[in-house]
Design goal:
Strand content of chain A: 15-25%
Number of domains of chain B: 2
Structural class of chain A: alpha/beta
Largest sheet of chain A: 5 strands, parallel
Number of strands of chain B: 6
InterPro entries (chain B): Membrane-Transporter-like, S04_transporter_CS, SLC26A/SulP_dom, STAS_dom, STAS_dom_sf
Protein name (chain A): Universal stress protein
Largest sheet of chain B: 4 strands, mixed
Order of helices and strands of chain A: EHEHHHEHEHHE
Number of domains of chain A: 1
Family (chain A): Belongs to the universal stress protein A family.
GO molecular function (chain B): secondary active sulfate transmembrane transporter activity
CATH architecture of chain A: 3-Layer(aba) Sandwich
Helix content of chain B: 55-70%
Oligomer: heterodimer
Number of strands of chain A: 5
Strand order of the largest sheet of chain A: 3-2-1-4-5
CATH class of chain A: Alpha Beta
Radius of gyration of chain B: 28 Å
InterPro entries (chain A): Rossmann-like_a/b/a_fold, Universal_stress_UspA, UspA
Distance between the termini of chain A: 23 Å
Order of helices and strands of chain B: HHHEHHHHHHHHHEHHHHHHEEHEHEH
Shape of chain B: elongated
CATH superfamily of chain A: HUPs
Distance between the termini of chain B: 56 Å
């Protein structure tokens, strides 16, 4: 089955539902690894740095956003690793998926920023159009 | 940390392209900041050239952009107004010297003592001041001025949706300058406020008397400039660190800023520092290495040499529109949420920093006031000392030091203690200084007078050490 699954996480409820689906697929094969990707958005970097006491505190803050997903993965005993990337969320996920040649991308249908999505088109839409592997969009 | 070769040539293609983008975005800002400082646009442009080129070699954060900045321009306004340009060059040299000294004194460590609230106040007041500096250039001049400012703003916010490669401010400048020239509307231009000379900067020695009086004039400005420059540069370095997921050498950056400012002073430029906005543009455009900063500086100078005579035709309202965009980008819009959610004291520190900067027009004064205020709040917070009674045992909660001795002594002075023998439990406390030891001795004496037997228990090792040290001292007298 799918050896490497990219799970896009942004701290939203949809990402948690996406994680549950990724776990279902990963449970079929003990060799499957779920690669959780969290993208620290360039646009938020300035205010993130201003509002955190140190780079360690900021890193912890970001890990907290995906802690619910990490807990789910831990409990379901699937293989996983966590990557925090930096950039624009859509393109960064696509770049990772294509460069790392993952076998499947799992992503929530809408993330945290509802308004931006209406104006600019959603991250999940961009990812689906541009990745070279199958993509699973979770409602 | 990457090797020097990596820092220079690890990302050649990305660095060249982003350097060009930054050079284009830098020109309007360098001109606008010169106008704020009250000097010719060339002073800011030369500064941006030398700052960028020197910091590419001497800096500690590859990919960060340094040039003439608004924060520094604001500090130098009174110096330029009262003493003139030559004193600004001299002050720029001295700023560099101070920054190099700070760099060797490991200033980066000290920067950790500047709380978030002060840094948020710093960027917010910077945004407010740059905006205020634009007001005289567009309020109450003419209807067309408002129209051009408005159109510029619309362009810079909508164009990036469609054109991503060329910076939107540049497109707005070209488009609206052409419109202004051909429609013949009466607008003030950059040429009305200064001249552009199409020559490379040349080496000069500031034409000031080299004596104590000059030093007395420039030193306060240089010290403020050095502080402001390092605060903004090290904040920017943190942001670039975060965006690129890499680390940087902050003390080397401080020394590099100093070297760049010294060179800038000798080549007829105004003191500069790292720029948050331009560095973010650089990283977003793919810049990562030292080469991007070097290209930004070189290409900026090239553009001025080639296009200088066109630059003077840029209408002021267009430049004002771009600067309003810079202010909006600089302001930390999450501050409003922060004010509502953060601890009261942090909110007060942030607002105090903003108020003092806007009042004095000097960012360094705001930073110092903010740091002092938050230090006071910190002392007040940790000086809260509570005592809890459990039978004949009195448990001390909190730190016993000069600021908390009153509440410690008063508790035993005014509370009726009925038992003939009590224990004071220090398991949740520590004694920090001679005042703390003195307070404990005072309480023991006080209770002994009332005929109460006192046992001090559960003292930790550092507290015991300070007691024995100080009591040993007093007994030797």
């Amino acid at each position: 089955m799918y050896k490497r699954i990219l799970l896009a996480a942004d701290g939203s409820e949809n990402a948690v539902r996406a994680a549950k689906e990724a776990i279902k697929i990963a449970s079929c094969d003990s060799e499957t690894v779920i690669e959780v990707v969290f993208v620290a958005d360039f646009e938020k970097s300035k205010s993130d740095v201003l509002h955190s006491t140190s780079s360690e505190a900021l890193n912890l803050e970001r890990r907290k956003k995906i802690s619910k997903i990490e807990q789910l993965l831990k409990d379901s005993k699937v293989n996983y690793k966590v990557n925090i990337l930096h950039g624009a969320p859509g393109p960064e996920i696509v770049k990772y998926a294509n460069e790392q040649q993952v076998n499947l991308v799992v992503i929530g249908s809408r993330g945290l920023n509802g308004l931006q999505e209406m104006v600019l088109g959603s991250v999940s839409h961009k990812v689906m159009k541009r990745v070279n592997c199958p993509a699973l969009i979770v409602k | 940390m990457q090797s020097l070769k990596q820092q220079w040539f690890g990302n050649v293609r990305g660095d060249i392209l982003s350097g060009i983008v930054v050079a284009l975005a830098l020109i309007p800002e360098a001109i606008a900041f010169s106008i704020i400082a009250g000097v010719d646009p060339m002073v800011g442009l030369y500064a941006s050239f030398t700052m960028a080129v020197i910091i590419a070699f001497a800096g500690g954060r590859p990919g960060m952009i340094s040039a003439a900045t608004g924060a520094m321009a604001l500090v130098m306004v009174p110096l330029v107004r009262e003493y003139g340009l030559q004193y600004l060059f001299a002050a720029t040299l001295l700023t560099g010297v101070i920054q190099i000294i700070f760099g060797y004194l490991k200033i980066a460590k000290l920067m950790k003592f500047i709380p978030n609230a002060v840094m948020i106040g710093f960027v917010n007041s910077l945004a407010i001041l740059i905006f205020m500096a634009q007001v005289p250039h567009f309020i109450g001049i003419s209807t067309m001025t408002y129209v051009f400012v408005g159109v510029t703003l619309i362009l810079v916010y909508t164009l990036p949706r469609f054109i991503k490669v060329i910076p939107a401010p540049l497109i707005a400048i070209i488009l609206l300058t052409i419109v202004a020239i051909f429609s013949g509307v009466d607008l003030r231009t950059i040429g009305d406020l200064g001249t552009i000379t199409q020559t490379l900067p040349s080496f000069i020695i500031p034409d000031v008397p080299f004596n104590l009086e000059t030093l007395q004039i420039i030193f306060p400005f240089s010290l403020s400039l050095a502080i402001v420059g390092l605060v903004e540069s090290l904040l920017t370095a943190q942001i670039v660190d975060d965006m690129t997921g890499t680390e940087s050498n902050k003390n080397q950056e401080a020394r590099g800023q100093g070297i760049a400012n010294i060179v800038t002073g000798f080549f007829g430029g105004m003191a500069g520092c790292a720029m948050i906005g331009q560095s973010v543009i650089n990283v977003k455009s793919g810049g990562r290495g030292r080469l991007s900063t070097l290209i930004a500086g070189l290409f900026l100078m090239f553009l001025i040499l080639v296009l200088g005579e066109l630059v003077v035709k840029i209408p002021m309202p267009v430049l004002v529109g771009i600067m309003i965009m810079v202010c909006i980008g600089t302001f930390d819009w999450t501050s409003f949420k922060y004010l509502a959610k953060a601890p009261r004291t942090d909110a007060i520190v942030m607002l105090t920093t903003v108020i003092i900067v806007v009042w004095t027009h000097d960012l360094s004064k705001g930073v110092i006031a903010g740091v002092v205020l938050s230090a006071i709040f910190f002392v007040v917070k940790i000086s809260i000392l509570k005592i809890q009674q459990d039978g004949s045992r009195y448990i001390v909660n909190g730190q016993l030091f000069f600021a908390s001795t009153d509440s410690f002594v008063d508790y035993f002075k005014y509370n009726d203690i009925t038992s003939k023998s009590i224990q004071i439990d220090f398991s949740n406390s520590r004694i920090w200084d001679d005042s703390g030891v003195g307070a404990l001795v005072k309480v023991e004496d006080l209770l002994r007078e009332k005929g109460i037997q006192v046992d001090v228990i559960e003292l930790d090792a550092p507290s015991k050490k300070i007691i024995s040290k100080l009591q040993g001292m007093s007994s030797s007298h």
